[in-house]
């Protein structure tokens, strides 16, 4: 639950919640991670799909995916020899697509 501090003139986000939101945006401040998340916003993918689509080494993609998993933004499922990744929730997809649309309009 989000903590807020109410004052006579506005509602202020608590410092802990503000730090959590800032950390989320720090994750999105990296272009490689944004590209990975945008690809996963379209469909679930395995590492080899992502390496081909982004033109990156498998180790670099795996490193970024591990970081995104640790941050709780993506989840994975093993199917045979492949591990498929997807966004952890629809809110992230909405934020990404809105940001991309905003960029394209401006």
Describe this structure in words.
The protein is α+β, with helices and mostly antiparallel strands. Helix content is about 60%, strand content about 20%. The chain has a single domain (about 30-105), classed as Arc Repressor Mutant, subunit A (Orthogonal Bundle), CATH 1.10.10.10. It is built from 5 helices and 5 strands, in the order E-E-H-H-E-H-H-E-E-H. Helix 2 (about 30-40) packs across helix 5.
Name the structural class.
alpha+beta
Amino- and carboxy-terminal Cα gap: 34 Å
Helix content estimate: 55-70%
Radius of gyration: 16 Å
Tally of DSSP helical segments: 5
Number of strands: 5
In CATH, the topology is named: Arc Repressor Mutant, subunit A
Order of helices and strands: EEHHEHHEEH
CATH superfamily: Winged helix-like DNA-binding domain superfamily/Winged helix DNA-binding domain
Content of β-strand: 15-25%
The strand line-up of the biggest sheet is 3-5-4
Unreliable residue stretches: none
Assembly state (oligomeric)? single chain
At CATH level 2, the architecture is Orthogonal Bundle
Mean pLDDT comes to 90
Anisotropy-based shape: globular
Most strands sheet: 3 strands, antiparallel
Assigned CATH class: Mainly Alpha
